[in-house]
Amino acid sequence: MTHRDLRPARVFLGAPSILTPAQQSTLDRWAGWLGQQPFEVIRLGRDGHGDDPWHTLPRLLAQVDGVVLLGFRQLHAPDAVWRPDTEEENRSARCWTSPWLQLEAGMAVARSLPVLVAPEDDVAEGVFQPQTWNARVRGTRLTPPGTGTGDWLDAVRAHREHRR
Q1: Predicted confidence (pLDDT) per residue in 25-65, tens digit
Q2: CA proximity to 39, closest of 75, 74, 63
Q3: What is the three-class DSSP state of 81?
Q4: Residue numbers of the domain that contains 154
Q5: In this structure, are residues 25 and 55 in contact, taking their beta carbons and an 8 Å threshold?
Q6: pTM above 0.85, yes or no
Q7: What's the CA gap between 24 and 34, in Å, rounded?
Q8: Sheet holding 66-71, edge to edge
Q9: Separation between Cα atoms, residue 119 and residue 128, nearest integer Å
Q10: Which positions ≥6 away from 25 have C-beta within 8 Å?
Q11: Looking at the 3D structure of the chain, how many domains does it have?
Q12: What is the CA angle 46-134-75, rounded to 5?
């Protein structure tokens, strides 16, 4: 067995960079829970994407076995309208998270990585819409960390075993 085989599964934990104290506390609890699985938790800070995020993200995702994206509120738009002045005009989600999380989810799905999303209340766009959750993108409640994640945990461990 090589040294590489001894490492725990690696999980990318994505979240917006600017958080309220309560959101930061929730992020810290998720990082702690993931570490107890035991997973090596990989994060990118605000400047972690570098000058070329289109190369940074794929390189990072090539090194992980799963992805967790925490959809914290970043934009409050209570009166926003989706597709205005069309036949499909409708009220949009009240709150939106960082668009980077949508990109990270798409790149992870393209790499066939197990993705887990956990939206904050009122965040329901893109991958954070429960109607989009399936075996490739699993969703759960934001709190408490780890609620209903058994299938995702199994998929991450299976991905790790496959990479060995």
Answers
A1: 999 999 999 999 999 999 987 666 666 777 888 999 999 99
A2: 63
A3: strand
A4: 3-163
A5: no
A6: yes
A7: 15
A8: 40-42, 10-14, 66-71, 115-119, 137-139
A9: 6
A10: none
A11: 1
A12: 35
User: Side chain identity at 44, as an amino acid letter?
Assistant: L
- Residue 37 maps to which CATH number? 3.40.50.2300
Show the tokens assigned to 8: 């725990």
Question: Which residues neighbour 67 within 8 Å (Cβ) at sequence distance 6 or greater?
Answer: 11, 12, 14, 61, 104, 105, 108, 113, 114, 115, 116
CA distance 104 to 133: 16
Looking at residue 89, what is its pLDDT?
A: 78
Q: How many residues appear in the chain?
A: 164
Alpha helices in 7-137 (DSSP H): 21-35, 53-61, 99-110
Distances (CA, A) of 126 to 27, 84, 97, 102, 137: 20, 18, 10, 7, 11
CB neighbour class for 158 (10 Å; exposed up to 12, middle 13-18, buried from 19): middle
What pLDDT, in 10s, does the model give residues 115-163? 999 999 989 889 999 999 999 999 999 999 999 999 999 999 999 998 7
As given in the structure block, the two tokens for residue 158 are 């299976």
